[in-house]
Design goal:
Number of strands of chain B: 7
Strand order of the largest sheet of chain B: 3-2-1-4-5-6-7
Low-confidence stretches of chain A: none
CATH class of chain B: Alpha Beta
Structural class of chain A: alpha/beta
Helix content of chain A: 40-55%
Largest sheet of chain A: 7 strands, parallel
Oligomer: heterodimer
CATH topology of chain A: Rossmann fold
Strand content of chain A: 5-15%
Structural class of chain B: alpha/beta
Helix content of chain B: 40-55%
Number of strands of chain A: 7
Number of domains of chain A: 1
Mean pLDDT of chain A: 93
Number of helices of chain B: 8
Strand content of chain B: 5-15%
Largest sheet of chain B: 7 strands, parallel
Order of helices and strands of chain B: EHEHEHEHEHHEHHE
CATH topology of chain B: Rossmann fold
Number of helices of chain A: 9
Shape of chain A: globular
Chain lengths: 255, 250
């Protein structure tokens, strides 16, 4: 009798996903779970995660630590270790998107975006460090954006923070390589399930390329998540310090 | 040659190092300079040297007057340049700090300070000058990034995040201001002989020095690139990041 064999690249692996109620976070949580991983999904929009928890059953833990607070990274790692005894993969999917042009950004809005998109990742990294160093292995994947590579005039705060994510990714890839940890990033283009207002601003940045690119369309959250799974799998192991555009070629100018 | 005759420039963090070299290089080409630094003493010293070059100078130094993380100070600096020096054409966002530690030993204070001075400071200064540049349909903004913003560096997750963010910020503002004839570019220095890089442990510094094909960089190397970006030679170049590393990174 034929039996459907599901891919199972992540059996006995534990993955932490931050901002997990976002479109890419949710898609990644489902796919990792489907392939056998223990999933710790963190987001303050915890009701969305509880729904997922009910549909997935075991091997899933929803948490709601506010990672802009310094101690939250340690607390998140501890929650993962208490539940699953190990952490193998950290996915930071921060993406606060109050995207505004320069003159409209208030000081507080700026701080808020930097806190949520950069500082939160810093705390999450600090949380997993001891465990990764202890076992001499680990995979970190940060979700940036093509706006972090190309800039975007209509959303200076968001794109600056996403550029910052790429700087962090490269520093982690250098700093933690001695502990056997790799760090990479994905840079999605406009995401089908994402903020549509943001997508409009995003696309206006690349209007010329869109005209030329017959193949261009929005990427889906699941397509982005599948690239993340590749990077987290054994196949992605030799990639370190790299950012991969997932954008149907929209930002062709990045080298 | 007086490539910047009649132009007024604000150079943040120009009390020392690369900022000071930029201020003097622009002054030598005829620009009037607003010298800025949180350290009053070094700012005054730079101002004196620029006066000796027969250029007009104003000073915004100390705290809060010279603090680029204070939005109202940034606005006052722009007003001061216009009032005391007769306008504003060039903004060099150079002020920056380091607080180095490996990630697991870095404190939140170290993280926050570097992001605030290096990144938010640039945003606030640019925002303060932006409307004026738009109205006069002319402006040159040069932001100081770093080689580390392109490639990361052990012990500098805060600094590399801020410097990589500056590259994306530069591109974003360049896109926003291009139709107003305002050029926004970034310069990414490699290892330049300044007080900041001399904080690198001696052995590591020496190994960098050995690795640079063109030898250790000077603040003047960087300043001359900044001058070019501010000149009419670069009137049609915007959103770019120029690495100035003497062949260390190619």
């Amino acid at each position: 009798m034929w039996k459907t064999i599901l891919p199972s690249r992540f059996v006995d692996k534990t993955v932490i996903i931050t901002n997990a109620a976002g479109s890419v976070g949710l898609a990644a949580a489902k796919l990792f779970h489907e392939e056998g991983a223990n999933v710790v999904a963190n987001d303050d929009r915890v009701s969305k995660l509880r729904l997922l928890e009910r549909s997935l059953g075991s091997r899933f833990k929803a948490t709601s630590f506010d990672l802009t607070r310094p101690e939250a990274g340690i607390q998140l790692a501890k929650a993962a270790l208490d539940e699953f005894k190990s952490i193998d993969i950290l996915i930071c999917n921060e993406g606060a998107s109050q995207g505004r042009p320069l003159m409209d950004v208030t000081s507080n809005e700026w701080d808020n975006v930097i806190d949520r998109n950069l500082t939160a990742i810093f705390h999450a990294l600090q949380g997993v460090y001891d465990h990764f160093r202890g076992k001499g292995a680990g995979t970190v994947i940060l979700v940036s954006s093509i706006a972090g590579r190309s800039g975007c005039g209509e959303m200076v705060d968001y794109s600056s923070s996403m550029g910052g994510v790429l700087g962090m990714m490269k520093t982690v890839s250098r700093e933690w390589s001695r502990c056997g940890v790799t760090c990479t990033a994905v840079c999605p283009g406009p995401i089908e399930e994402g903020d549509q207002g943001l997508n409009v601003k995003f696309k206006s940045r690349y209007s010329q390329t869109q005209v030329e690119l017959a193949s261009f369309r929005n990427v889906t959250a699941e397509q982005v998540a599948r690239v993340i799974l590749f990077l987290a799998s054994d196949d992605g192991k030799p990639l370190n310090g790299q950012a991969i555009n997932v954008d149907y070629g929209l930002y062709l100018h990045s080298i | 040659m007086s490539r910047l005759e009649g132009k007024v420039a604000i150079v943040t963090g120009s009390g020392r190092g690369i900022g000071k070299a930029i201020a003097k290089t622009l002054a030598l080409e005829g620009a009037s300079i607003l010298v800025n630094d949180v350290d009053k003493e070094v700012a005054e010293a730079t101002a004196d040297e620029i006066r000796e070059l027969n250029s007009k100078v104003a000073v915004a130094a100390g705290i809060p007057e010279g603090d680029v993380t204070d939005e109202s100070s940034c606005m006052r600096m722009v007003e001061k340049a216009k009032r005391e020096l007769g306008g504003l054409h060039i903004l060099i966002n150079n002020a920056g700090v380091t607080r180095d530690k490996v990630i697991h030993k870095m404190t939140d204070e170290m993280w926050d300070l570097v992001l605030k001075v290096n990144l938010k400071g640039i945003m606030l200064m640019t925002k303060a000058a932006c409307e004026h540049f738009k109205q006069q349909r002319y402006g040159k903004i040069v932001n100081m990034s770093s080689m580390v913003g392109l490639g990361g560096n052990v012990g500098q997750i805060n600094y590399s995040a801020s410097k990589a963010a500056i590259i994306a910020f530069t591109k974003s503002v360049a896109e926003y201001l291009a139709s107003y004839n305002v050029c926004v570019n970034a310069v990414a220095p490699g290892i330049i002989d300044t007080r900041m890089t001399r904080q690198i442990p001696v052995e590591k510094f020496a190994s960098y020095e050995r690795a640079i094909p063109m030898g250790l960089g000077t603040p003047e190397h960087v300043a001359r690139v900044v001058l070019s970006l501010c000149s009419e030679d670069f009137d049609y170049v915007t959103g770019q990041t120029i690495l100035v590393s003497g062949g260390l990174i190619i």
